[in-house]
Every structure is written in structure tokens, then in C-alpha cells.
Amino acid sequence: MTNKGSRPIEFRSGLLGWYRARRRKLPWRGTKDPYKLWVSEIMLQQTTVQAVIPYYERWMTLFPDAASLARAPLRKVLKAWQGLGYYRRAQNLRVAAKIIVNNYGGRVPADFEEISKLPGVGPYTAAAVLSIAFDKPYPVVDANVRRLMMRVLAIRGEAVPKHDAAILEFLKPVISKRSPGAFNQALMEVGGRICKPRNPLCPRCPARPACSAYREGLQEVIPRPRKMARPKRIEAVVAVIERDGRFLIRKRPEPGLLGGLWEFPGGKRKPRESRVAALRRELREEVGAPTRDEKFLAKVRHAYTTFEVDLYAYRCRLEGEPDPSRGRLKWVTSKGLRYYPFPSGSAKIIRRIEEGNVA
DNA sequence: AATACGGGGGG
DNA sequence: CCCCCAGTATT
Questions:
Q1: Which domains does chain A have, with CATH numbers?
Q2: Which of A3, A158, A227, A297 has its CA 20 to 30 A from that of A328?
């Protein structure tokens, strides 16, 4: 009934055995380079393994170490991050690389307190890097571990951080002192692939002998599903303005949503406003001159966590000249667009433009 | 304790 | 359409 005696030992060896036999092959597995592992952990924050893999590979060719990242221009760093989301992570990575170069001789600090001072490094990332790169026995609690351990320990309720203290208290004496990195990754990968939110694969689970939820038949009850707010639907209009072979783009203000990225000027349509009227109003506000000769180009849908945008793109001309004091504006050639970081919605529109030019 | 912060894949 | 992901910083 309780997790006493040999249970924790069985739990640990079951996990390690599963990991040795069943682990996936991932680009950041098999390296001990603290820089590479740090970058991988930042990329993996709230982001699926599959999404991260190509970004990680490309990143390591562009910025193979902290020094190269520290001296890279922000635009290039954000461009390498384009499409991954949570762009503050990329900015933090670059700032932290400078700190690593200036204060730690170019090496990622191996101390929990020190590494936690780096921007973007919280309790999870600190423990992950220290355990995997430096073999220090800090347990990790991510979303996968939280769900798995709530089931193992039969902790009822929603999967929220308030349970982490109890989970860490349990894991601290249980984590493998010889292979803490393997233990942590085993916990995360079993949580992700076996102990899934719904339809967990208990028959294949190495933690099943220790799992209270399984024993009591509560796998589908723990954790309790969270009620998500319905995404709000928003409609926005964007102006694709080409003049002498150059497109007008605008840098989004920082901080804020998509801060530091570039986009075509435009904005939200108001309730009883036509799209063209919205376009002219937004361009007056953002650029200092309204559009004219608007011609529908494309509609793209773009989903965020709490809302969803339908972007209506129009090719149009500018009625007058842009007013630089309204914000950061730039005329960029079609080729030049590839050097600027865009949100995924804008990137979709750029693809449509390029398709149009081919046709 | 809540909220801001992206985007895409899977059911 | 719905769910949630190898979290962190801010309020």
C-alpha cells in the first residue's frame, strides 16, 4: 500500500531498464555538452520533441557554442527561432550566452543557484541540465513527470504546479545517483509516451508495479482534466505593399506578443467595420498613410492558445508616404524578407506571395 | 494564484 | 473542433 521497502528501488530500476531498452534516439541524446543540452531544454519548454528536432539541428550549425551565440545579432537569432513560438526564449538564450561568456569563461555553470540566475532558466531547466550534463542528482518535474507521479502517488486534482513539492520530495531519495540524467529522461519519456493524458498504456509501463492509480483503477481520473477557455475568434487585415520591388514591413513592439518580430502592417477589424475600412484605418495608425487600390490576396488562419485569427491579406498601394516616427518600418526586397524573423501567420502570407510570383 | 507568452500535431 | 505539450516571468 505504501511506497516503502523495495518499492522505490524497483521503481528506479524499472525506469532505468525501460530507458536503456526503449528510449528514442534524439539529436541531443549521447552528448554531454552542457551548452547543447541547455539549448535543447530551452527549446523543449512547452514544445513537442518533434517540433524541436529540426530547429535544434539547424541551431547547432549556426551557433555551435555559447561564444558564437553571444556575438550573433538578435535578428539572426530570432530568425533561427522563427516558427518555434515563445520568442522570449530566443532572446533570453542570447542574453544568457553573453553572461556565460562574460562571467563564467564561456562555460555553462554547473551549480544550481548559478545556472538559475540565467534568464529563461527555471527549476525544471536547471535540474535537467545539471542532471544530464553534470550527473548531479536533481529530479525534474515537467508536465510528463507531474502527470506520471500524480498517478504513481495517487495525488488527486488537476495537473498543476502546487503538487510539485510533494513529487520532488518523493523523487529526491529515489533518483539514481549514478545516472540521474538517465533517470530523469526515463521519467519524462515514460510520462510522454506511456503515461499519456488519456488512454495510458499501463500494460507497457515500467512504473506500473509502483503505481497507486493503476492499483486502484484511477488512471483515467488522475489527473482531473482542465477546463480550457474557448479560443476567441479574431479577424485581422494586413497590407502587402510593394513599391519598386520592395515590401513594407514593420517591427512589432517589445515586450509583448511576438515582440521583436516583423510583420506586414495591419490590425484587427472592428465589429461593424469592413475589411478595407479596417485596412485604411490601421495603416493610418501604424504607417501614417492609408491604403488604396486594395486587392484581396489570401486568407490564412492562425491559432494561438487563447484566440484564433483569420488574416485577410490585401495587395494595395499607399496613399502618401510612411511616417517613420510611428514605429519601426522598413522597405525590403522579396529576397531580403528571408533575413527577417516573421510570425508563422506572416510567413504563410509570404509563401502565398512567392507562389503568386511563380505562377 | 493567475495570466502572458506560439505554434503545431494528434485524436 | 478539442487538447496539450521536456516552463518561465510577471502581476
A1: 7-141+159-192 (1.10.340.30), 232-358 (3.90.79.10)
A2: A297
